[in-house]
Amino acid sequence: MTVETAPIPRERAISVEEFDALAVDTDHRYEIENGFLLVNARPAPPHSRAIFRLMLQLNAQLPEGLEAFSELEAELIGRSPRRVPDVVVAPVEVDEQTRIRSDQIALAVEIATSGESAVRDFAIKAREYAANGIAHYWVIDILDGAPAGLTIFTLDTEENYQIGPRTTGSVTVSEPFPLTIDIDTLTGPRKTS
């Protein structure tokens, strides 16, 4: 049986309809960035480990009715209408949807593992998420040569992010809900004792 799939547009903008018609690809992660198709490899082991361990910490502390999800496709407004945050915290019911809407995201988290992803996460996605009213956004950087760190972005009344200082170690926050995240345990080999 042959399955017809939409061709991947190259060197031109992609519409939401074309994007949504792309075949499922388990080797890559697709997003629309500034109107163009962005194709990234699936997360490498350090990135995947950080996502998994962060989700464990979040799900152990989240209020009833909320859950942490990895790599849900988000529906946004603007020139980048399809994004895939590494982790989102949202109502449990979103697991029934094809994609999550920005107004359902209580917290979006990106894991930066390279200079390129850091630029995208700290600048480009921060602007896009703020424009879509995502009130709480975190970037966890696990770049080589430095301990893992967390930077918290909080939307102000003018819909701009206020950026907190980069923190390491154990971090306790009160918004969007009380949480304590041990940033150091997101990376490195699993501890057996």
TrEMBL record:
Q: Which residues cross the membrane?
A: none
Record InterPro entries: Nuclease_put_TT1808, Restrct_endonuc-II-like, Uma2
Q: Where does the source fall among the domains of life? A: Bacteria
Q: This chain belongs to which protein, by name?
A: Putative restriction endonuclease domain-containing protein
Q: Where is the Putative restriction endonuclease domain positioned along the sequence?
A: 16-178
> What Pfam families has UniProt attached to this entry?
Uma2
Cite the SUPFAM superfamilies for this sequence. Restriction endonuclease-like (SSF52980)
